[in-house]
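User: Could you go from structure to sequence for me? I need the amino acid at each position, not a summary. Structure tokens:
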């Protein structure tokens, strides 16, 4: 979906049909631009008016919006004046709160839509707090300067690039990418998740995760999935791996996937399969990073491994 307009009323109607009807206060003549793409249940939208505008509407129903000013800034009324949002700190809209914010001159927003049910499920998996509804009500600001926030923004940039590429194999990665985005979003928006502490279980929890990864490495596994298998919050899972393992949960998953790819490539024929097919089947969503990891682990490109059998046969 791509909409441009120089008339505020026409553009407001188009934006309203995409999100929900709303009021916009601004000049009649604007340079409005809306570009929207969908990836499963996650939606990415670039929105700009070219002028300063104030936007108000009732709470969103069933979904929430993460608004990142990738150019300029936005703001909302706060107790001590207006609270500004930027590339360091983004705004979260729609969790049962009325919407009232301003896009300042030359502001461009990258807006990501998440379904509230998916946010709740992710929050429940990451937290040992049973009151997910109250936690969601407090989600108003996303810390993009935090490790999770930087990861989230990096994923959104990559996803936006892939969605523009008609030849992308992105459809194969939908479940993995959606889960990863949700985990990063929730971690960056709920500061208490990084502060949770709990009594550490035994090494048996780590062994359960290892067995789970051995069986399902080709699926769209996230750290949150591994934490569920271990029966602990994500932060505790990392503490368990620091205590009982020489690698992180992500390192474990990557190693198991690389080993699986290696086994297949060593025995496969280049006439019957491709590196891309094998990597995707073993759970790698980003082929460029996969190639880097493979070369670092085995000292050669995956294509070299695949071709060696042909040369030696």
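Assistant: Here is the amino acid at each position, in order:
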């Amino acid at each position: 979906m791509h909409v441009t307009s120089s008339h505020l009323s026409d553009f407001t109607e188009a934006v309203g049909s995409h999100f929900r009807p709303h009021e916009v206060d601004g000049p009649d003549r604007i340079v409005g631009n809306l570009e929207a793409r969908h990836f499963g249940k996650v939606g990415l939208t670039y929105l700009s008016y070219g002028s300063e505008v104030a936007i108000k509407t009732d709470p969103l129903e069933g979904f929430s919006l993460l608004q990142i000013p990738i150019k300029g800034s936005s703001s909302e009324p706060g107790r001590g004046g207006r609270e500004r949002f930027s590339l360091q700190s983004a705004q979260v809209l729609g969790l049962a709160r009325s919407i009232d914010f301003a896009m300042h001159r030359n502001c461009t927003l990258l807006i990501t839509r998440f379904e509230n049910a998916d946010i709740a499920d992710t929050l429940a998996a990451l937290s040992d707090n049973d009151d997910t509804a109250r936690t969601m009500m407090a989600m108003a600001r996303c810390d993009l300067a935090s490790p999770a926030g930087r990861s989230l923004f990096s994923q959104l940039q990559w996803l936006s690039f892939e969605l523009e590429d008609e030849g992308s194999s992105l459809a194969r990665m939908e479940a993995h990418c959606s889960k990863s985005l949700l985990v990063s979003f929730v971690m960056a928006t709920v500061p208490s998740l990084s502060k949770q502490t709990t009594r550490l279980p035994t090494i048996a929890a780590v062994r359960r995760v290892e067995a789970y990864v051995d069986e399902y490495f080709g699926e769209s596994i996230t750290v949150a999935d591994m934490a569920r298998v271990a029966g602990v919050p994500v932060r505790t899972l990392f503490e368990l791996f620091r205590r009982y393992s020489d690698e992180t949960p992500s390192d474990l998953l990557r190693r198991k996937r690389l080993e699986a790819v290696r086994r297949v490539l060593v025995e496969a024929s280049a006439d019957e399969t491709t590196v891309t097919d094998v990597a995707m089947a073993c759970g790698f969503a980003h082929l460029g990073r996969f190639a880097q990891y493979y070369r670092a682990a085995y000292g050669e490109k995956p294509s070299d491994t695949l071709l060696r059998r042909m040369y030696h046969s």
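One structural detail worth keeping in mind: The chain has two domains: 2-158, 197-313.
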